[in-house]
Design goal:
The chain is an alpha/beta fold. The protein is 47% helix and 14% strand. It folds into two domains: 153 residues, NAD(P)-binding Rossmann-like Domain (Rossmann fold, 3-Layer(aba) Sandwich); 94 residues, Orthogonal Bundle (N-(1-d-carboxylethyl)-l-norvaline Dehydrogenase, domain 2). Helix 8 runs antiparallel to helix 9. Keywords: Oxidoreductase.
Length: 257
Amino acid sequence: MKISLIGSGNVATHLACALYDLKHQIVQVYSPNCQNAQLLAQRVKAQPIDQLKKLQPTDLYLIAVKDSAIGEVAKQLASLNIDGLVVHTSGSTALDAIKHSSPYYGVFYPLQTFSKGKAVDFAQVPLLLEGSHAEVLQQLDILARQLSPQVYHYSTQQRRSLHLAAVIACNFSNYLYSVADGYLTGQGVEFDLLKPLILETAAKVQEHAPIEMQTGPAVRQDQGILDMHRHMLDSQPQLQQLYQLLSAGIMQLHTKP
């Protein structure tokens, strides 16, 4: 399949490289920053472009830009009379956001966190698909199953729900890691000591329901420890508030009716 990437960020980079490794032809890579387009294009032997009007006819146009830019990209594609399949890769953007870009459009959303310097095994990545027509969904399904056995056909609302849950499970967790790291740094303690605990916590939910794996003073309703921790954070009111809010949430979740 001939594929062009519209975008050169984390998602675009990982998808372009994975599809290139599967022997798909990456025709062009677009970015308004010419240098960024060139960096990715070199990796997948594509032509870098910095204007959408330079797009050549291809089978598939993958829009992998920030959510707020998808509508403008779709608008520009509409003016080019695109005949190929156009899809976006966003978890929270509606399918209809690109309905004017082409007669054939869809969603190809990889449910994973991507960083350019960290390799991703797409076989472990759920791919969420949506299509304007049954034929579009079928085409996307064939392509997706070349990357991963975990392929799902979900509506915009279902996909948005997953994206919200992903933000809570991934982005919020990583924020808490950063908070814990900052707190320990102030105490002269190494954050690395927490890494086995973090790995074990993540491993447990691979086999069990998260609610069944909850541990700590809040689920035990150990008020003595909760009060001690709260007082330890008297000099950091924002962190103290966060600790109290999350502890209250855990207790409420585990309080029997």
